[in-house]
Amino acid sequence: MDILLTLVDFILHVDKHLEVFVQTYGAWVYALLFLIIFVETGVVVMPFLPGDSLLFVVGAMCGVGLMSYPLTVALLLAAAILGNQSNYAIGRYFGPKVFAWEDSRWFNKKAFNQAHAFYEKYGGITIVAARFMPFLRTFAPFVAGVAQMTRSRFTFFDVLGGTLWVGGIVTVGYFFGNIPWVKLHLDKIIWAMILVPGLFVLVGAWRSRAKAA
Hints:
Structural class: mainly alpha
Low-confidence stretches: none
Number of strands: 0
Distance between the termini: 39 Å
Shape: elongated
Helix content: over 70%
Strand content: under 5%
Largest sheet: none
Order of helices and strands: HHHHHHHHHH
């Protein structure tokens, strides 16, 4: 419970925690941020780490000169791309082991082939859009690996989505993160960045289930 409360406090007050870290450890903040983004996107069991809010706050810190904007964007983009590549590789490794069976009561080979074909045709959009959705961005590359999406196709959408996600949110934070109103309501903005995309995911899942039914 203490660990959970600490994590929630870090997510909601990430600006204060990062500022203290920068003042205490200086340039080591770049290594910490790289690790957080890499783990969130690269380890399928760690979807709860802050992503959008972290990038926004980091952009705001760059805006006041506490961090280097070009270095931050370059490092976090590398972390996001490499994290997705790692997650994809894990899914691709375990996928064949899980789904290599012939058709049975437990495994529908035809359905799997159809899912693979669908992912090959539309999966790229999923990889890009998932970057902006908590939890989903952690699982999307793993599913792409399981579905045997080709490495070259996945890499293209991985780089595209990572660039839009990291570059976009850090830049927004850089220009707007230090506006007094934004700083005053930052905790509410962080909640919105977590809950609103999650709500879209839930509504989409509900509509898909209703349509299937």
